[in-house]
Please model this.
Amino acid sequence: MQPKAKAITFGPAHFINRELSWLEFNHRVLEEARDLKNPLLERVKFFCIVSSNLDEFFEVRVAGIKQQIESDVVERSMDGLTATEAFRAIVKRARRMVAEQYTCWREELVPGLAANDIRLLDLTELEPADLAWVEDYYNTQVQPVLTPLAIDPAHPFPQLLNKSLNLIVRLEMPRNGEALKHMAVVQIPRILPRMVKLPRADARQDYVYLDRLIGHHLADLFPGTKLLGYWPFRVTRNSELYIEEEETANLLKAVESSLHNRRKGDAVRLEIDHECPPFIRGPLLKTLRLDEEDVYLINGPLNPTRLMALTEGDHSPELRDPPFVAPTAAQLRDRPDLFAVIRERDILLHHPYESFNSVVEFLEQAASDPEVLAIKQTLYRTGGDRRIIGALENAVRNGKQVTAVVELRARFDEANNIQWARHLEEAGVHVVYGLVGYKIHAKSCLVVRREGHTIRRYVHLATGNYNPTTARIYTDLGLFTCRPEFGEDVTNFFNLLTGICQFQGLGKLVAAPFELSNRLLQLVERETENARRGLPAGIVLKLNSLADRAIIEALYRASAAGVRIRLIVRGICCLRPGLKGISENITVHSIVDRFLEHSRIYCFENACQPEVFVSSADWMPRNFFRRIELAFPIEDGNLRERIISEVLAHSLKDNVKARMLQPNGSYQRLAPAGGKAHRSQSEFLALATGAEDAQRKRVTGKTRYPRVKLAPSPFAARKPRRSTP
Model:
């Protein structure tokens, strides 16, 4: 009989603050913008992504923390910080990041772009011909859409849109022998490009900033005044949707109304030109009800997200990653009848290395196949793809029962989803919005097909959205199967979403918020018990985020019992690895590379009988308790081995784009051991294009990607040590 393990008490020192962990993730994105090994325009993309990420962080997370500070509730998070303490730590870390980001822009990216004939010019640098063109552009394209807004007793401060770019203008106007000072605001029109491209007959890419162009002509907007100065600024507002669903008769209308209010939510951040004097900043902060700690002085272009335009078009291929067109998965090549292939075996797709077109073709075949009776699908972020929407519409025209479960509250995609929900309804698709109080985050599609005298159900389950655009830049997994037990589970799952019933449990699939958290805790406990009994025990997880306290404590107990735990967590990780007696057997890797790591995989050694689940859910309270999620087991042994020895093993070998989490919450970039570099995403590209490259080599003698051997199973590594209580 095994001795009972001593209970471990966990305190704030065992956890990393959620927000600070996220900021460390965004800093890893910034490191990619600073990495000289990345092509220049890819570095510009990462620079823009840093700003886009920070915008959402302030709109949602910082806004929520400020609301906590203003509330009457005083409590500490699991890392021991109050809301005020967390906010101060966030401000300190975010300021350092923003300063480093703009240093990168001024000292690295702008000179690099200029050296490659992509220039951002000041109007003082323009030749007479360019000045004449800019003058005409302003008069015909810009000036007609500008509206100068005075600020005085008769003109209150305007309601500025969230994240819009504006100019605060200081003017002097003579009246009755006095020189009176005035303030005004000019909004930079969003409808116009952030950067105005100058006409060139050659390959040069020359731009001027729109706000500088408008600033140059401000005197025209305020005739009879003297311009004393102008400074660009930008306000970020609380953008969370607040909907009392149980009191709402029509969720679609409620989301539309909340979207309208989002544009004028409370201000949470002011970004302003670093040269703006305090006597201008002060009244602006007061008007916005912000403090000095909410202002960020920017030495560079505000709203860098729109600088992504520099990377658009087909210019400068030498400054980009090599082009990659995902091949069709080997199992599906030259097999036009997808239903026949799925009947033979389960099919695993690894995006973006294998083409997402197979998923779209699955829908299109189902829509046109006369034997298909019904299609049911969840839609979280479709991007309004015409082929997916078109397939559902075509299925209706062909007399099939079509149901789409559309999540209206997919953050910052709400307006797009409302539009497509209405479009589908008009086409005859039965559109529903899921369960009250829960966001539908599961990714599933069910096709019901008559085959002779029987009915067969074909299922697609995935970690990523039904969105061909993001499927080219996010790493995700998808499974095709027609296993009867999977079909039964997915049928019951859709009945739960569309009907009125209580959750009765599923056979193979695991659903949140009903059972996923408890099931995962049981699986972790099983590994813990196996380790105590001297049986092989190990856990390998690939997640976007890990922030649930109960599951982190369970992982700590497993580590202390001797379970080797290897985590690949792209973003937030509140677990501290390497703590003596607590997490010595846990390592945490984060990979930031060309594609956004997005797949979720849960792998348990189970005494040499590995169990693998693939899921839409991260290990966070919101996924476990406030979202509808699915996790599904990989039953096919070959596919299970592929995930373990290919997807997980190569990710764990990465020593080029991977960083390792340190006990203090910082991340350390890995160095290639013995000079052997392993970049997992490049190796996945090579594996996916192996057959294609074999043909290429026969013709040209060269391949695009090096050949890659499969890595050993992550469970075949060193034996972990059991902590002594």
About this structure: The chain has three domains: 19-319, 330-508, 512-716. The first helix runs from residue 18 to 34.
